[in-house]
Amino acid sequence: MAADTSATPEAGPAGWDVMYRGTVYPWHCDQMGHMNVMWYVGKFDEATWQLFASFGVTPDYLRNSGRGMVAVDQRISYQRELLAGDIVVVRSALLEVREKVIRFCHRMENAATGEVAALTVLTGVHFDTEARRSRPLPEELSKRARALVSDFDPGI
Asked: Contact 82/117 with Cβ under 8 angstroms?
């Protein structure tokens, strides 16, 4: 399914939730005048923790259970420049939930125009922080996550 390009900047694609809002500051920009790739990744990372919390993978859960999440793959498609002063919104969706693996997508938009600045798809693995081995998500968290899965195909 292709991205919904008819969505308004306020609404975004159907079924996607805003997981991050922020601003591009001058110190986020490189010598070419646009936001440097390290800041795209940082803003996507902040959205990731909000997305995880939406289905119960919270800091308390991770600390108290001895569990963690680790990214094993990340793909990014840069589509439009962001400049100092631009307001950004990151909308997120789960793409796939397996026993130990979660695949998800973030869509970074210019909040004023609704234009997609970047898309990223990440694959994360749930693991035991002491044993350093992957572990299944608890059934309740897995069930909550599966209820949020989108049929969006980011194409990357």
From this structure: yes
